[in-house]
Design goal:
This is Intercellular adhesion molecule 5. This protein is mostly beta strands and 913 residues long. Strands 59, 61, 62, 63, 64, 65, 67 and 68 form an eight-stranded mixed beta sheet that branches.
Length: 913
């Protein structure tokens, strides 16, 4: 029998049992769905079906629009469309007698329109505000909830639970107290239709937000500050203030003088409104006028009025018959004003108001730039106002050059800034020009500047205007302190040893200075000829003195001479330490400093230059090339006064040096091998001594290498020129050992169950894990590093001996473990007095299939067996009885089996459905 046929046997068997069970029969009718909730105007499909054993007549009784969309011998599907109200359609069938079944069809209406009734244009703060929300048509009302919101804050929430199912639409009204913080707030209404109890969702919609504008207006009128008098054509500030105003920025302001509206500048200071403007009156407004300030907010106004008198008062007129006149001519001065004004000219009032005042004078030089004053006064509304005007008379006359304004002789010290003045009286103001006849040099008169010796000399000064001219001679003398320049007194002088010289310095100054020079550290003045010796070298202080001061200068004298060698500064024998960076030093005495070259000769590289350190070489000079050969070098010192030769011998030594070639940084030993020392050596002269230690402790003496020898060692090479250190890492490798081989679960493996074998090895380098499984064992899974072997759905073929082997470059080690798969027989029993005989025959056939097919092949789908109620034993080795049959495990090392104390039992147990 095929496995598929066995799987079909159970449904047939169950059908046979259904026929034998009494009480099944009789015609029935059903409707699907029994309940439905749909949106208003929606569509739903209703399935009417019957179990009538003859061909029935099926139908759907309803007042709704219906259409049959599908049918069968015992069922029909009707589509109900444009459903507007709740309904209870009835399915019916004629099957010998009429049978019926009804359904419940509920209709909901989405809250498509949510309206918040309009708010007042302005709402006074502190008064009640009525909010009204309307949701027409939405339903059922019992599932509806309305919420009034201020922004995101809920003000009131009402649920209409308990309303009749057919009730639609809802209205929510609330009264709130208007506050300042509500100004500009958005109010809205949210409707929620909760159909989740009917298997649908929560539907919501919100009204468009409406902005509320609140206001507060003080009952007091504005405070108005205005001028009592306003002159025609003049500008005066106006200020209007109103407190306790909210929102002040929304207020409207009207500010006017008579019927002329002003342009206000509005400033907000908290809840206060400050209005400023500039009032300007014209001639048509002359007389008594009112200035009004009106503030409007929220449809309410506050107003204040003040009286202002507009007047006209032109400034007085002051005239001179000759504003600019030559001296000796008569000038008439007149002061006049408008009607009603009383004028006064230089303190003398007019006879009556409205009449001018006048005076006459014969112009002289003293009247030049004389000022005349004209005052006018006018009485307006009991207040006396005044205005004045002034004028200046210009009298024309020829220039005058006085000694007080233009001295005949000037003497100035050089340096400080002076203003050169040669001024002349006259009108118009004369122009003054001072020029040296010999050179044409011009004095910069009236300008401040430094006095220089170039200004000295005699100048001809001429003052000119259109009335005439004046001429005068002026002498300028400039005195200045001594100076020592590089031409008359050089900063640096060079003398040659053995010659005769004299030290002299020439100074410039007015009056002529005297000059003296003194050698540093000595008191006597240097005079006459000197026979030059090296002791004359040094610094001299030369000082020049006159009546304006003194000046000193330092003169450096250098005495030059030919080169010479000294043993202390240039030794005959040099020892070079390779890599030390220390150059050879050969310092030679001489002026100027001689150039020195040391060239290889006997025993050295022929013609090779020896690198030398200059006396002022900075630290950190690059080291000498290691290729420099020792031997004899000839040193030659030369300057412009001669040369000198010296022979030097060079020998070489070097500090310790270790690298990867002499002391490898990574070394590997094998566990159990004969112990050896670290392979470390160093180059250097004299030959360095090398010692290695770990954490400051020398390595202990061992006959064989052990794992404890692994670690980091520090090797130190030393000779008289220094040390060199190197870190060496020692690794110890060893052969593999399978340290652990275990099974999970440890309590047993049943057919169809899962088990896992874990293998752990110790080795370095890390071992490669490999497995050997029993022949025919399929569907075996391994972990990424092969350390775990897993089986899902164990079968008989999975029983047997498993071997885990660990291998690296130094050897191989293996252990074994035995796994057995075993379980009990399973039986299926079906109860029932009426069907016992039939089930006995079916069970016998099923048992025959299981024993003859599944157990022989060792193959079976555990899930199919459990779901179908079949039972099978998977023992993998031909069977066993009972549920306690076990498996024995064992291990073997180095490919040699070793008996293990006790046994490890693994089993798979199948259970009936």
């Amino acid at each position: 029998m095929a496995p598929g046929a066995a799987r079909l046997a159970l449904p047939a068997l169950l059908a046979l049992i259904g026929v034998l069970v009494p009480g099944l029969g009789g015609a029935q009718i059903s409707v699907h769905p029994p309940e439905a909730t749909i949106p208003r105007g929606g569509t739903v499909q209703v399935n009417c079906s019957t179990s009538c054993d003859q061909t029935p007549t099926l139908g759907l009784e309803t007042q709704l629009t219906k259409k049959e969309v599908a049918h069968g011998s015992h069922w029909k599907v009707f589509e109900l469309s444009d459903v507007q109200e709740d309904s209870h359609p009835i399915c019916f069938a004629n099957c010998g007698k009429q049978i019926m079944a009804s359904m419940s069809l509920a209709v909901y209406w989405f809250p498509e329109r949510v309206e918040l009734l309009p708010l007042p244009r302005w709402q006074p703060v502190g008064e009640n505000l009525t909010l009204r929300c309307r949701v027409p048509g939405a339903g059922p009302r019992g599932s509806l909830t309305l919420t009034l919101l201020r922004g995101a804050q809920e003000l009131i929430r009402r649920s209409f639970a308990g309303e009749p199912p057919r009730a639609r639409g809802a209205v929510l009204t609330a009264t709130v107290l208007a506050r300042r913080e509500d100004h500009g707030a958005n109010f809205s209404c949210r409707a929620e239709l909760d159909l989740r109890p009917h298997g649908l969702g929560l539907f919501s919609n919100s009204s468009a937000p409406r902005e509320l504008r609140t206001f507060a207006l003080s009952p007091d009128p504005p405070r108005l500050a205005v001028p009592r008098l306003l002159e025609v054509g003049s500008e005066r500030p106006v200020r209007c203030t109103l407190d306790e105003l909210f929102p002040a920025s929304e207020a409207e302001v009207y500010l006017a003088l008579g019927d002329h509206r002003l342009s206000p500048d509005i400033t907000l200071e908290g809840d206060a409104l400050v209005v400023t403007a500039t009032a300007t009156a014209n001639a048509e407004q002359e007389g008594a006028r009112q200035l009004v300030c009106n503030v409007t907010l929220g449809g309410e106004s506050r107003e204040t009025r003040e009286n202002v008198t507009v007047y006209s008062f032109p400034a007085p007129v002051l005239t001179l018959s000759e504003p600019s006149t030559p001296e000796g001519k008569v000038v008439t001065v007149t002061c006049a004003a408008g009607p009603g004004a009383l004028v006064t000219l230089d303190g003398i009032p007019a006879v009556v108001p409205g009449q001018p005042a006048q005076l006459q004078l014969n112009a002289t030089e003293d009247d030049d730039k004389r000022s005349f004053f004209c005052d006018a006064s006018l009485e307006v509304v009991g207040e006396t106002l005044s205005k004045n005007k002034s004028a200046e008379l210009r009298v024309l006359y020829a220039p005058r050059l006085d000694d007080s304004d233009c001295p005949r002789s000037w003497t100035w010290p050089e340096g400080p800034e002076q203003t050169l003045r040669c001024e002349a009286r006259g009108n118009p103001a004369p122009s003054v020009h001072c020029e040296r006849p010999d050179s044409g040099a011009v004095l910069a008169l009236g300008l401040q500047g430094p006095v220089t010796r170039a200004l000295a000399g005699t100048y001809r000064c001429t003052a000119v205007n259109r009335q005439g001219e004046a001429v005068k001679e002026v002498t300028v003398t400039v005195e200045y302190a001594p100076s020592l320049d590089s031409i008359g007194c050089p900063e640096h002088i060079t003398w040659l040893e053995g010659t005769e010289v004299s030290l002299s310095c020439v100074a410039h100054g007015v009056p002529p200075p005297s000059v003296s020079c003194v050698h540093s550290g000595e008191a006597g003045v240097v005079e006459g000829l000197l026979h030059v010796v090296r002791e004359h070298a040094g610094t001299y202080r030369c000082e020049a003195t006159n009546a304006q001061g003194s000046v000193a200068k330092t003169v450096a004298v250098t005495v030059e001479y030919g080169p010479s060698f000294e043993e202390q500064s240039c030794p005959s024998n040099w020892t070079w330490v390779e890599g030390s960076g220390q150059l050879f030093s050969c310092n030679v005495d001489g002026k100027p400093e001689p150039s020195v070259e040391c060239i290889g000769s006997e025993g050295a590289s022929e013609g090779l230059l020896l690198p030398l350190a200059s006396p002022d070489s900075p630290p950190g000079v690059p080291s000498i090339a290691s290729g420099l050969a020792p031997g004899i070098y000839i040193c030659n010192a030369t300057n412009r006064h001669g040369s000198m030769v010296k022979t030097v011998a060079v020998s070489t030594e070097s500090p310790p040096q270790m690298d990867e070639s002499t002391c490898p940084s990574h070394q590997t030993w094998l566990e159990g091998a004969e112990a050896a020392g670290l392979a470390c050596a160093a180059r250097g002269r004299p030959s360095p001594q090398v010692r290695c230690s770990r954490e400051g402790v020398p390595r202990p003496q061992r006959l064989r290498v052990s794992r404890e020898d692994a670690g980091t060692y520090r090797c130190l090479a030393t000779n008289m020129h220094g040390t060199d250190a190197r870190t060496v890492t020692v690794g110890v490798e060893y052969r593999p050992v399978v340290a652990e081989l275990a099974a999970s679960p440890p309590g047993g493996v049943r057919p169809g169950g899962n088990f896992t074998l874990t293998c752990r090895a110790e080795a370095w380098p890390p071992a490669q894990i490999s497995w050997r499984a029993p022949p025919g064992a399929l569907n075996i899974g391994l972990s990424s590093n092969n350390s775990t072997l897993s089986v899902a759905g164990a079968m008989g073929s999975h029983g047997g001996e498993y071997e885990c082997a660990a291998t690296n470059a130094h050897g191989r080690h293996a252990r074994r473990i035995t796994v057995r798969v075993a379980g009990p027989w399973l039986w299926v029993a079906v109860g029932g007095a009426a069907g016992g005989a039939a089930l006995l025959a079916a069970g016998a056939g099923l048992a025959f299939y299981v024993q003859s097919t599944a157990c022989k092949k060792g193959e079976y789908n555990v899930q199919e067996a459990e779901s179908s109620g079949e039972a099978v034993c998977l023992n993998g080795a031909g069977g066993g009885t009972g549920g306690g049959t076990g498996a024995e495990g064992g291990t073997e090392a180095a490919d040699t089996a070793e008996a293990q104390a006790g046994g490890e039992v693994f089993a798979i147990q199948l259970t009936s459905a």
